[in-house]
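Bumping my old thread because nobody answered last time. Still need a sequence for this structure:
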């Protein structure tokens, strides 16, 4: 039998011929007489930045074939995945950008659905979040094609099916022309991301929230798009304070002063982007520090919450949070009502808007 296969296809096609006849259902492919009709996954591009779309095409199917496409990645032992159900078009093709997913992790037409809908795979610990730790390496996303519409995570799905086709995609936060420089300047701790091409470039400080530590993925991506970005840790990292209650706004003043005078940064001021607690600090930096000319608030309130904040010898008071007012909703919780008491919004927002107008004059 082996000799017969060799005589028909040659040694280089033995594995492909066996795969076609044994692993691929006949109703699934258009033909198995030629190797060109074996289902194949085409990814364009195969190595891409995280903020760019990926075009995923599958060819060589039978018209109307039901298929499941699965995505999977493993990061530092954490496993995430998603899947979607498709029906091949009249040409025996599936393009995730033009054909709707009929079920699975998401429904509808969405080119990036197999990526944003990823969740922790079964067996992972509760509360797991996908967050890139080492931005100098890409996410390696594995894409596999399965016959039929199945739920690969269901205990009732029976024996795990062998993929009909597989491929990998590399998704990057940090471009090849960006340099990562550890920062230990004075009290400052973090990482500076600088484009390697001659500058100067706009400078940005990047802050995250109550998880603490050093989070770098957004800074790396912004630098890949032409910014000099300081990913700034401010507690629970190296020799920095252990808790939020011990931080001082003067630390961020030092960061603003240092970055605004960096030789790779365009003179005239910097921006700050912050998420959650980092967004609160970003707004305070925009109010108090003249070096800061623009602020981006991501998922943060417009006032200081929970903890009072030291500013040298002064104390900036926080708005009291009444946790009894938390409202449970279908997809999470609402905490807006927790901060209703004690907020003089008219005074605060007038001051913030005035400073915002001043920032815009300098951009």
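Sorry it took so long. Here it is:
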């Amino acid at each position: 039998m082996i000799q017969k296969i060799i005589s028909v296809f040659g040694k280089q096609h033995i594995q492909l011929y066996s795969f076609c006849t044994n692993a691929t259902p006949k109703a699934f492919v258009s033909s198995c007489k030629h190797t060109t009709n074996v289902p194949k996954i085409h990814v364009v591009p195969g190595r891409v930045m995280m903020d760019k779309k990926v075009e995923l095409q599958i060819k060589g199917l039978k018209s109307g074939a039901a298929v499941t496409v699965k995505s999977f990645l493993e990061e530092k032992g954490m496993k995430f995945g998603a899947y979607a159900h498709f029906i091949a078009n009249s040409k025996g093709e599936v393009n995730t950008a033009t054909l709707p997913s009929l079920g699975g992790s998401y429904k509808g037409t969405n080119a990036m659905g197999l990526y944003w809908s990823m969740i922790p795979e079964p067996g992972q610990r509760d509360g797991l979040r996908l967050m890139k730790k080492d931005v100098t390496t890409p996410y390696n996303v594995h894409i596999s094609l399965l016959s039929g519409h199945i739920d690969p995570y269901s205990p009732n799905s029976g024996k795990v099916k062998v993929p009909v086709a597989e491929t990998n995609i590399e998704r990057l936060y940090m471009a090849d022309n960006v340099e990562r420089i550890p920062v230990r300047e004075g009290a400052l701790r973090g990482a500076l991301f600088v484009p390697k091409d001659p500058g100067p470039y706009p400078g940005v400080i990047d802050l995250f929230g109550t998880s603490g530590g050093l989070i770098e993925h957004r800074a790396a991506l912004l630098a890949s798009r032409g910014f000099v970005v300081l990913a700034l840790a401010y507690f629970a990292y190296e020799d920095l304070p252990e808790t939020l209650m011990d931080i001082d706004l003067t630390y961020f003043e030092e960061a603003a002063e240092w970055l605004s005078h960096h030789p790779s940064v365009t003179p005239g001021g910097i921006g700050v982007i912050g998420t959650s607690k980092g967004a609160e600090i970003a707004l305070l930096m925009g109010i108090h520090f003249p070096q800061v000319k623009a602020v981006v608030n991501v998922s943060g309130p417009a006032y200081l919450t929970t903890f009072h904040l030291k500013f040298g010898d002064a104390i900036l008071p926080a708005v009291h949070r009444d946790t009894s007012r938390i409202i449970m909703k279908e997809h999470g919780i609402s905490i807006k009502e927790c901060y209703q008491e004690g907020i003089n919004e008219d005074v605060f927002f007038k001051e913030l808007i005035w400073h915002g107008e001043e920032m815009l004059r300098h951009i």
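The chain has two domains: 2-16+27-172, 178-361. Let me know if any region looks off to you.
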